[in-house]
Design goal:
α2 runs antiparallel to α5. A hairpin with a 6-residue loop joins β22 and β23. The chain folds into two domains: 307 residues, Bira Bifunctional Protein, Domain 2 (BirA Bifunctional Protein, domain 2, 2-Layer Sandwich); 90 residues, Rossmann fold, CATH 3.40.50. The protein contains ten helices and 23 strands. Helices cover 28% and strands 28% of the residues.
């Protein structure tokens, strides 16, 4: 992508209401733009990150046998009445009426919809287990909207639902999801800890959150630095629980950001929505369910919150909008020709590259913007590098650059064969 053609405009000042680094930097770098309180547009750079996170989630969920589908955001009132959640959700549902005066909820979650969809398609134990997921827009009627993408009214969520003939089978799949979530967060450059938590409005069963330790997080957890056991303050006893129940080490209290949640639902939704099957003995039983969610925008904000410095974002390679930022810093013909050739060579090798071909910016402006945008590698072509037949390459997370040949650069940047 030529930077002269990229649809974006960075800013020097963050929004007045922005209090945390990720919010400030994502807006300043023009990855996101606020339309209204808690409602954001994703610009081309931001949406590239969003899509890459979503694709990582798809990779890992597909790997454990899940299948992707797409469900409606508008959900009829009748379904929510069957589960007694129409008037009892917290935060309350966002409700709309059509021209026939029928009431619908803008989906904040999809347990009712997915259960209704699955019901006519499962009759026997032979039809189980099933795992279905989507990456779809959710709507939350939040009272407090803080932290940019960390708490919003509208966001994309990857929500997975699994269906089983008994708790034992649920537990097998549940553990597979925990492993998939570990992989997702690791690939996104995060060290997420599995934390015991309550089920809130979704289930009375004990659940697990995935938490990333951060001073800006709204959650509070008891955390074991030795074995990584953790529990949310909702279920832990922070005043009395001092030792880790797993290894006996001293527990510490930490602020954290929730990036994922996994629920054992049991028959909470299958029973009121009549989702049942016939087992091997010919007995009719309720289908046992699990559900698992990751907010894509929140995960993106968390990545930026954990991976930044005073100059800008430091994107992990797998989620960066581009792997390399190629910068031409002089406008002589030989520099232009060398930069153009390298740009084409990188594209031929399928390296995602943003090429700063602008001629109306100073070197300082280009470097400052490069740091703000945060691509993993910065490549500089200049009179000096052309003369030496080398390239100046700097990892975004490193302080110093080094000179290397194009062949050496390609070995670093070329996509690894799967």
């Amino acid at each position: 992508m030529r930077q002269s053609k990229l649809f974006y405009k960075t800013s020097k000042e963050a929004p007045k209401e922005a209090e945390i680094a990720s919010h400030k930097l994502l807006v300043k770098a023009d990855f996101i733009s606020q339309l209204a309180s808690g409602i954001y547009s994703f610009l081309p750079l931001g949406y590239k990150v969003h899509k890459k996170i979503a694709d990582i989630i798809r990779d890992e969920l597909d790997a454990i046998g899940s299948q992707e589908l797409f469900l409606p955001a508008l959900q009829p009132k009748e379904l929510w009445l069957k589960t007694d959640r129409w008037a009892h959700m917290d935060p309350p549902l966002i409700v709309v009426k059509d021209r026939h005066n029928r009431e619908f909820a803008l989906g904040m979650t999809h347990e009712e919809v997915i259960t209704d969809l699955v019901r006519p398609r499962i009759q026997s134990y032979k039809d189980l287990p099933v795992a279905l997921y989507q990456i779809q827009t959710k709507f939350r009627n939040e009272m407090r909207l803080t932290g940019g993408l960390l708490r919003t009214k509208e966001f994309a969520m990857a929500d997975l639902y699994s269906f089983h003939q008994d708790n034992e089978d649920l537990e097998k799949f549940f553990n597979k999801v925990l492993g998939a979530y570990d992989n997702i967060f690791r690939r996104c450059g995060l060290d997420a800890v599995k934390s015991e938590a309550s089920g809130g409005a979704f289930t009375k069963e004990k659940t697990y959150e995935f938490q990333v330790v951060s001073d800006v997080g709204e959650d509070k957890i008891l955390f074991c630095p030795k074995c990584k056991w953790a529990a949310n303050f909702e279920v832990a006893r922070p005043d009395t629980q001092k030792k880790c129940p797993q290894c006996g080490a001293e527990l510490v209290q930490k602020s954290s950001i929730e990036v994922g949640h996994t629920f054992r639902l049991g028959a909470k939704y299958s029973e009121p929505l009549s989702l049942s099957f016939v087992n091997k003995k010919g007995e009719k039983k309720n289908v046992i369910m699990g559900c698992y969610g990751i907010g894509v925008g929140r995960l993106m904000a968390t990545i930026a919150e954990i991976n930044h410095d005073n100059n800008g974002i430091i994107w992990p390679e797998e989620v960066a909008p581009f792997k390399a930022h190629l910068i031409q810093i002089e406008n002589s013909k030989k520099v232009k020709d060398a930069a153009e050739k390298l740009y084409l060579d990188l594209q031929k090798e399928d390296v995602e590259v943003l090429y700063d071909d602008r001629e109306d910016k100073t070197t300082g402006e280009k470097f400052a913007e490069s740091d703000l945008l945060g691509m993993p590698y910065r490549i500089v072509v200049s009179e000096r590098t052309v003369e030496k037949k080398k390239l100046e390459v700097r990892k975004r997370k490193d302080a110093k650059a080094e000179l290397m040949t194009e062949d050496s650069l390609m070995k670093i940047l070329k996509p690894k064969q799967k």
